Amino acid sequence: MTTSLNPPGAPAGAPRVSGSDAGKIARAAFVGTALEWYDYYLFGTAAALVFNRLFFTDLNPTAALLASFATFGVGFAARPLGAIIFGYVGDRYGRRPALLITIVMIGVATALIGLLPDFATIGLAAPILLAVLRLVQGLAVGGEWGGAVTMAVEHAPADKRGRYAALVQVGSPVATLLASTAFTLVLLLPSESFDAWGWRIPFLLAIPMLLVALWIRLKVEESPIFKDLLAQEDTVKVPAFEVFRNAGGRLMVAVLAALLGVGGFYMITTFVVSYGSNTLGVERSVMVNATLVAAVAQIIVTIFMGRLAEKIGPGKVTMWGGILSALLAFPIFAMIDTKSPLMITLAITLGIVLIAVAYAVNGALLTELFPPKLRYSGVALGYNIAGATSGFMPMLATAMLGVSGNASWGAALILVVISLLTALGGILGERLRVQDKQLVADS
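and the corresponding structure tokens:
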């Protein structure tokens, strides 16, 4: 069942959208999202391969890895607060200014991580500063993705929202390619050089990426739907409060629908890279290279699923993505346990592809769960509450290894649970979708 925000038909003076503008805005959103996930993926990989050894060296190996993943999770815990802060900016003053602030925060924090002295140099201050910079990343990312998909969707004709929202999602696998390639290259260095300075290079590359992303975003026009809200003086004073008070059920559905795209991704990348290299003894380069292959497949699946969502609805696509991920979670980890480079690559690729089915349509589904005056805050809160919950899953899965005697069934079980919750979110989300009937599409 699809409901509308306004009666069918477009009144005089209604906001106008066009495919050409939508494409330009979606590409700008894509660039910023690519930087966002480049930074986040870098941190996840470094948490598994670097930070546990260089920033938590006073702990035993298992405790150091858990502490490293806890720092990784801090960024996710900060994301709901970032969603509230930048949701307020985006729903009160404009999507554009919020997105300009978040992109600068993300890029600067990431570059500073690349300049951070390690534990051997400054002692306890090293992990503390690392956690602080991770916190800044988390606050910024809390407002980044929600604003990016909101801008892309609100500039798009109603019948083409799926493809433009999916284009924003392509930023994730592109970022994975960039980050994995950067780490693959620096892993070719001798171990001493990698630990001394090599791992820092991928983080410092965030600086030129930030300059490009900022230049593109400065050219972006404000959302026509938000301009219409300002003209009608229909903005909300405290949008996050209104989301919790008047759209709490929709917010819960958004959280469920987003769980797999965030939590599943980091289970198949961050946790699996750590599990393969630290527990199974597989070469680090094998684990990182597998994510490169998976990222290419994810781009193709994401684009296709965006188009499919326009035909059958993003909620149904989300449902099937969750069901398939749950069914194949245990076989995927069984393939990884073989320690075969080929089987590991196939397993990671299959896992990412299945997760991408639901992730591809997150933007289209979540934006249509909330009315325009609450949209930035609602989308950002839903996505980032899911992120705050699932960001600690690599740490939880690592802890489960101790319980299971280093067997992977605990991690597979976690993936099954979040997959089924996302399938439920897709079913409910499809029934709750709203459409902006006031839009007029230019030819």
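(Above: one complete record from the training split.) Confidence is low (pLDDT under 50) at residues 1-12.
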